[in-house]
């Protein structure tokens, strides 16, 4: 479990990303797009994955609305994966999902997930896991559409 100082820092990071999100704003050209809705709380996202010719993720663009956790998670995801190869992105999605399903038993690896590891505490609140996962599920769907 994170120390109280670290928890405060994580909370501030999540609030910062929800206020000034990375990757916010859809692009006109659409390589692969997914729209996801969390019917439990009404969080909603449309996420685009833009791949470069070399197979890396050039950009993640998204728009949506919902709680601070869902918005921050989308921003953190976009920041994390830009420049990564698709297989690396898929691996990080799987690792994040495992941490979110752990109910606090697995601390997310900051080496692998960067600042998105700050969302680790969400896993202890089952009702909020879907909020944190929404962008990651949309990304997974968009990656399938990229082929």
Compact description:
This is SUF system NifU family Fe-S cluster assembly protein. The protein has 147 residues and is of the alpha+beta class.
Would you tell me which CATH topology applies?
Sufe protein. Chain: A
Largest sheet: 3 strands, antiparallel
Pairing-aware structural class of the strands and helices?
alpha+beta
What is the number of E strands?
3
- How would you describe the oligomerization state of the chains in this entry? single chain
Q: Taking all residues together, what is the mean pLDDT?
A: 90
Domain NIF system FeS cluster assembly NifU N-terminal: 9-131
Pfam families: NifU_N
Organism: Microbacterium bandirmense
Protein name: SUF system NifU family Fe-S cluster assembly protein
Descriptive notes:
- The structure is a single chain.
- A three-stranded antiparallel beta sheet has the order 1-2-3, covered by helices on one side.
- Helix content is 48%, strand content 16%.
- It has one domain: Sufe protein. Chain: A (Alpha-Beta Complex).
- It is built from five helices and three strands; from the N terminus they run αβββαααα.
- With 147 residues, the chain is of the alpha+beta class.
- It has helices at residues 4-19, 68-81, 86-101, 110-113, 126-146; strands spanning 32-37, 44-51, 57-65.
């Amino acid at each position: 479990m994170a120390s109280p100082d670290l928890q405060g820092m994580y909370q501030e990071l999540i609030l910062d990303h929800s206020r000034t999100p990375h990757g916010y704003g859809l692009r006109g050209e659409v390589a692969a797009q997914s729209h996801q809705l969390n019917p439990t709380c009404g969080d909603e996202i449309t996420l685009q994955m833009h791949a470069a010719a070399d197979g890396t993720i050039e950009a993640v663009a998204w728009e949506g609305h919902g709680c601070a956790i869902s918005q921050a998670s989308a921003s953190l995801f976009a920041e994390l994966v830009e420049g990564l190869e698709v297989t690396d992105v898929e691996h990080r999605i799987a690792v994040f999902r495992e941490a979110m399903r752990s109910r606090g038993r697995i601390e997310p690896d900051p080496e692998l997930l960067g600042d998105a590891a700050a969302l680790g505490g969400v896993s202890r609140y089952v009702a909020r896991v879907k909020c944190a996962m929404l962008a990651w599920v949309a990304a997974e769907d968009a990656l399938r559409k990229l082929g």
